[in-house]
Amino acid sequence: MTCVVLVRHGETVWHAENRYTGSTDVALTDEGRAQAQALGRWAKHAELAAVYCSDLSRSRDTALPAAEATVLPLREEPRLRELDFGSGEGLTADEMRERFPAALQAFRADPAGNPLPGGEPPAAAVERGLAALREICKRWPDDRVLVVVHSTLIRLLLCELLGRSISDYRRLFPSVRNCAITELSFDGEQVALLQYNVPTDAERTTR
Q1: CA triplet 111, 146, 49: central angle to 5 degrees?
Q2: In principle, which of 77, 88, 170, 173 could form an S-S bond with 116, CB 3.0–4.6 Å?
Q3: CA distance 176 to 143
Q4: Which residues are catalytic?
Q5: Close Cβ partners of 66 (under 8 Å, ≥ 6 residues apart)
Q6: DSSP element (H, E) containing 138
Q7: Strands 2-8 and 144-149
Q8: Which class for 88: exposed (0-12), middle (13-18), buried (19 or more C-beta within 10 A)?
């Protein structure tokens, strides 16, 4: 079984305003870069075999200190990028309520069945993200791998892997902290959730 350590990227410039970032390439804040450095300190003692990230800069810049600390190549995987929120990209919930209130209400009632206008269907994000994770597990079958990705994708994948409806991702997993550890034991089919949303602690490996 592969130990897959899923980590949300560090804080971004849209974090304070709670804007939907999705596939938009938004930079880390100074705090986000500090969180990335803390993740690097954790990674140095975590016995990792590989470090992966999505192809968005906030994910790559968060993963880079971990790759440098472990002297491992940073492997970018486009299929691990965040869900595209369509017309909701860059907006707050209040701004969406003003522009398309009915669509926002439908999304909140069933985000899998009712993507935001022009947005990616969550089932499609699950399909691409799960395919990427399965390939990682196949390549590293008995190792521990760090995968730096995004909040919504992590929550969708957890629902899918744990046999819950992806429509419930917002209710079952209401938030994921920046740079927190969510670890799975996964062989591509069978899965066990070892820890969820645990803050990074550079003094222990959490293995």
Answers
A1: 150
A2: 88
A3: 24
A4: 9, 82
A5: 36, 39, 40, 42, 43, 48, 51, 146, 148
A6: helix 122-139
A7: parallel
A8: buried
Q: How many CA atoms within 13 Å lie on the side-chain side of 26?
A: 21
For residue 153, the SS3 value is helix
163-197 burial, b at 16+ Cβ within 10 Å, e below that, comes to eeebbebbeebeebbbbbbbbbebeeeebeebeee
Distance separating alpha carbons of residues 16 and 87, to the nearest angstrom: 20
Per-residue model confidence as pLDDT tens digits over 55-79: 999 999 999 999 999 999 999 999 9
Tokens representing 160 are: 């899918």
Residues 61 and 56: their CA atoms lie apart, in Å, by 9
Residue with tokens 């939907």: 20
Report the pLDDT averaged over residues 154-177: 96
